[in-house]
């Protein structure tokens, strides 16, 4: 018999395995479990008041998502992403999110565009007392509004999975290159104007992809 618990994030009944998965993944993405952090089954099980079995099932799911890896004689550790892997992840996001945003553009309602602009305005105001993590969260929400209207659900799912993979880096790009933030806000505004003006989807795609790649280039230039 499968027993259920209540998820803290969604408030819905979930299996013990799902609860363990959601909890561990959230801690990886918010940085509580940093790169190289060792995930001990018994310890996590005690914290969640579950046996080691659902924790092990959760870790296998996270391994498939490449958020953790198993090492011989060590167990599960949070994956540490090197700069090359980060570049590959950002390039992938630029391509798939650009495509999704282009397809979504003709379908965006005035209300959706207004919501995106409101988020961008919050990002602009936040520049005065810059917090890279808050800025990054608003940035993610802004782009979610735009690409989620894409009529291809497989592409939307792919974008979100790429975002999850990128978030596992747990190092906001804007922490390393805060000077990129004002330019990003202005590019957001130009993207919204392009969409509102009925810009060709291919042009919207190119602009959205270039916007992402500009952030990546700023990061790589700082690393060099």
From TrEMBL:
The keyword Amino-acid biosynthesis does not apply. SMART domains: FCD, HTH_GNTR. Pfam families: FCD, GntR. PROSITE patterns: HTH_GNTR. Residues 14-81 form the HTH gntR-type domain. InterPro entries: GntR_C, TF_FadR/GntR_C, Tscrpt_reg_HTH_GntR, WH-like_DNA-bd_sf, WH_DNA-bd_sf. Keywords: DNA-binding, Transcription, Transcription regulation. The keyword Transcription applies. This is GntR family transcriptional regulator. It comes from Amycolatopsis nalaikhensis.
């Amino acid at each position: 018999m499968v027993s259920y618990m209540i998820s803290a994030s969604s408030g819905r009944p979930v299996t013990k395995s799902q609860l363990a998965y959601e909890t561990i993944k959230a801690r990886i993405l918010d940085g509580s479990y940093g790169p190289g952090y060792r995930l001990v089954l018994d310890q996590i099980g005690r914290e969640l008041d579950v046996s080691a079995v659902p924790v092990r099932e959760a870790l296998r799911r996270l391994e498939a998502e490449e958020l953790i890896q198993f090492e011989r004689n060590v167990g599960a550790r949070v994956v540490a992403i090197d700069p090359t892997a980060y570049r590959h992840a950002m390039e992938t996001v630029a391509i798939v999110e650009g495509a999704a945003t282009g397809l979504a553009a003709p379908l965006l309602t005035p209300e959706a565009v207004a919501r995106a602009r409101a988020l961008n305005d919050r990002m602009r105001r936040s520049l005065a007392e810059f917090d890279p993590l808050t800025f990054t969260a608003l940035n993610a929400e802004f782009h979610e509004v735009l690409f989620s209207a894409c009529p291809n659900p497989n592409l939307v799912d792919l974008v979100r999975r790429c975002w999850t993979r990128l978030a596992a880096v747990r190092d906001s790009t804007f922490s390393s290159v805060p000077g990129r933030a004002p330019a990003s806000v202005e590019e957001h505004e130009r993207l919204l104007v392009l969409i509102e003006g009925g810009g060709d989807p291919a042009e919207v795609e190119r602009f959205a992809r270039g916007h992402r790649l500009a952030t990546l280039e700023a990061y790589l230039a700082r690393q060099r």
